[in-house]
Amino acid sequence: MTLEELQRTAQEERASQSKVACHLHVCTAASCLSAGSAQVKQALEQELAERGMRSFCRVKGVGCMGLCSAGPLVAAHPEGFLYGRVTPEDAPDITRSLVEGRPVRRLSVPTDQPFFRRQRKLVLENAGLVDPERLEEYIAAGGYASLLKALTEMTPQDVIREVTISGLRGRGGAGYPTGLKWSTVAKSTDAEKYVVCNADEGDPGAFMDRAVLESDPHRVLEGMTIAAYAVGARHGFIYVRAEYPLAVARLRTAIRQAERAGLLGNRIAGTPFSFHIEVRLGAGAFVCGEETALMASIEGRRGTPRPRPPYPAEYGLWGHSTLINNVETFANIPVIVREGGQWFARIGTATSKGTKVFALAGRVVNTGLIEVPMGISLREIIFEIGGGIPDGRRFKAVQTGGPSGGCIPEEHLDTPVDYESLAALGSMMGSGGLIVMDDTTCMVDLARFFLEFSKGESCGKCVPCRVGTAHLYELLDRLVKGEANGESLRMLEELSDLLRHTSLCGLGQSAPNPVLSTLRYFREEYEAHLAGRCLAGTCRVGANR
Amino acid sequence: MNWVRPAPPSEDKRWKIVDAAMRRMGYRRDALIEALHSVQETFGYLDDDSLRYVAQSLRLPLSAVYGVATFYHFFTLKPPGKHTCVVCTGTACHIKGAPQLLEMMEREYQLKPGETTADGRLSLLTARCVGSCGLAPVVVLDRELGGKLTPEQLRHWLEKRLAYDA
Q1: pLDDT 10s per residue in chain A (545 long)?
Q2: Domain-located, residue B7
Q3: Domains in chain B, number
Q4: Which of A233, A437, B60, B129 could be a cystine partner for A204, CB 3.0 to 4.6 Å?
Q5: Among positive and negative, which fits the CA dihedral A256, A257, A258, A259?
Q6: A285: nearest CB among B71, B93, B95
Q7: ipTM over 0.85 threshold
């Protein structure tokens, strides 16, 4: 597909869409599907057919609209009505409201609430608007124009320069400058290079990558292909969790469509550049999110990490120079190429540019998927976008960064969200899971929960992590059960320090973070446990005394 | 010496699916995880014969295949029950009541995670996070996802599912 053909496809698709006066967008991402959106979609289609309204209105399945807690969601365009908790029985009312031009009150979800107003969508700009299973819609929304721009108007160095200027940093959590990573791989003289997309989203409480893949899979393919052009790779892999069957299916469909349209595969868009992408399934090992373990897994081996350096840029898949980025990082690329690095760098803070997608969950009114500019405060996210804590309870802490992150208490809620500020609090940006906790959560129990996780997911290769996480868990378990002695807090700290400095990979190095951050901010809860009480009242401390 | 590709362990036609998965990747060693996925998807679990067959087909030591099969949590070497109930134990589910769901499973069905009832009708598994945190606590029963469940609702759902077979 050449540039002219791409533009023609976009025009035809837009013309076809404008033939009907309105569209009903039904969310068909995993969360709404499990709340019954497939039946809603079917009921709406049937209702429109029965009323002979199909030339007036079209129903389409779209990706995530964000407010998962109110699912299944249905949006009417261009009217701008948004309906939540829709059931198939609501279909007649919804179709009638289109004719009358008045929203159905009882189903309406206000769209002027902070949840929608405070967001800034770049990565998710198409989520909820395009049908993730149709290439034409992605093209009509401007998709693949960035790829063709890169291939026809820019040299690989130009692309890397724009990415460097944009200030984009790795969205998987560590925040390594993307432009720098790309230029390292580009400089390699290796004849065979690879581009790998890390979609092994293992942090419990994180579903950003899943939503991106389910809502806008072509965007990730486009970002990867631009990256491959920039670094000079011909083969790519997307390593995605087997636990995300819908994301896998949509990715495979998208790859097939892009290949057929000549936007992926041999001689892309008539240029000499070729790039092939294969999907590889993970098999439920958290450690495979670590890049060297991930590569071992792609090679068909046990997913155990190895020491770095050498970094994947020098010695990656099968020993070749390899570029690994996270889903969200790749999803940012089309925007950067389209609007320019300068434009992108104007969003965010001095050190953290652009936006960040977060999965908001736990004890908060609005749970779901959000995208906010970097630098927004945690308080704004939780109390404005998230709508605060339900059931009149008190906020206690927010957990960021999953098992590698920490808990942030109320007094630090005004901290701006950027890589450095969160790290200074003893937590981390992480991949984007934000779990809000109220006063019913015991922080000692929470630390034990995360160590149970890390203990189970430790690959066993290095001793500090394999034995250390088990010991940390033991200590915390005794605290939770009220069997600990006065030495245990000191031992927790010592052991945490040991793990942090001597573990082989990020899993072991960051496993103590949930312990250290809760010890730092909620020490009184640990001390209460020692004294035989649980402040949240959830642990049966003293039952075994 | 010419190496001969092994014959499938049985006459079962479903081995063709597994063969296709390995052929697609040229019987390369990196096809191992994909091959195991296809065995598990086809037969429900990985038995000794299938591990041996995959090892021979990909010309890998059996120890390497067993090592991979046991390393990844997704693979199971035990036949699953007729129904599988996966309780998500992700962070959001944990603070919204997943431990109570597991307690109920142990109390009512004498099941701990990883176990199957004596009559083979129900298996209980846990997942680290199924990524539907907005609906916490979440349970996946036979690939169908249910959200915002209380222990009582889960029991009701299971009873309905189990009664359906009878």
Answers
A1: 889 999 999 999 999 999 999 999 999 998 899 889 999 999 999 999 999 999 999 999 999 999 998 989 999 999 899 999 999 999 999 999 998 889 999 999 999 999 999 999 999 999 999 999 999 999 999 999 999 999 999 999 999 999 999 999 999 888 999 999 999 999 999 999 999 999 999 888 899 999 999 999 999 999 999 999 999 999 999 999 998 999 999 999 999 999 999 999 999 999 999 999 999 999 999 999 999 999 999 999 999 999 999 999 999 999 999 999 999 999 999 999 999 999 999 999 999 999 999 999 999 999 999 999 999 999 999 999 999 999 999 999 999 998 999 999 999 999 999 999 999 998 998 889 999 999 999 999 999 999 999 999 999 999 999 999 999 999 999 999 999 998 999 999 999 999 999 999 999 999 999 999 999 999 999 999 999 999 999 998 865 44
A2: no
A3: 2
A4: B129
A5: positive
A6: B71
A7: yes
For the record, the structure tokens of A211 come out as: 């939503």
- Residues of B with a Cβ under 8 Å from any A Cβ are 28-34, 36-37, 64, 67-68, 71-75, 89-96, 127-136, 144-147
Q: CB distance B91–A204 less than 8 Å?
A: yes
- Give A464's Cβ-side CA count (13 Å radius): 19
CA distances from residue A157 to A123, A229, A275, A385, A435 in whole angstroms, order as listed: 23, 10, 18, 39, 40
Q: Which of A32, A280, A302 best tests the B interface by mutation, with the highest count of B CBs <10 A? A: A302
Nearest CA to CA, how far is B70 from chain A (Å)? 9
Q: Residue holding tokens 């724009």?
A: A162
**Are B68 and A71 within 8 A, CB to CB?**
no
Between chains, do B68 and A281 touch, taking CB under 8 Å as contact? no
Q: Among residues B71, B102, B135, which one ends one of the domains?
A: B71
User: Are residues B92 and A437, on separate chains, in Cβ contact within 8 Å?
Assistant: no
Same structural domain, B109 and B154: yes
Helix (H) or strand (E) holding A325: strand A321-326
Cβ-Cβ contacts under 8 Å between A and B: the total is: 139
Is residue B131, in this structure, part of any structural domain at all? yes
* Contacts for B148 with CB less than 8 Å, ≥ 6 apart: B135, B136, B137
* B145, part of any domain: yes
Range of the domain at B143: 83-165
A32 Cβ contact list (under 8 Å, min separation 6):
A26, A64, A65, A68, A71, A72, A73
| Percent above pLDDT 90 for chain A | 91
Alpha carbons A267 and A275: distance in angstroms, whole number: 8
Contact A464, A502 (CB under 8 A): yes
Whether B104 and B61 share a structural domain: no
Say if residue B90 is in the same domain as residue B149.
yes
Calculated CA dihedral for residues A67, A69, A74, A79, nearest 10 degrees: -50
Q: Do B131 and A207 touch (CB under 8 A)?
A: yes
- Closest Cα in chain B, distance from residue A207 (Å): 5
Q: How far is Cα A85 from Cα A67, in angstroms, rounded to an integer?
A: 11
Comparing alpha-carbon positions, the chain B residue that sits nearest to A460 is: B71
3-state secondary structure of B164: helix
Token digits of residue A336:
């950067």
Residue B10 lies in a domain: no
Contact call for A303 and B129, based on CB within 8 A: no
**Domains, chain A:** 18-117 (3.40.30.10), 143-345 (3.40.50.11540), 356-438 (3.10.20.600), 443-530 (1.20.1440.230)
> What CA–CA distance (Å, rounded) separates A67 from A361?
11
Distance CA A357, CA A371 (A): 4
Q: Which of A207, A363, A453 sits opposite B128 (nearest CB)?
A: A453
Say if residue B34 is in the same domain as residue B100: no
Mutation choice for B interface testing from A85, A297, A457 by most B CBs within 10 A: A297
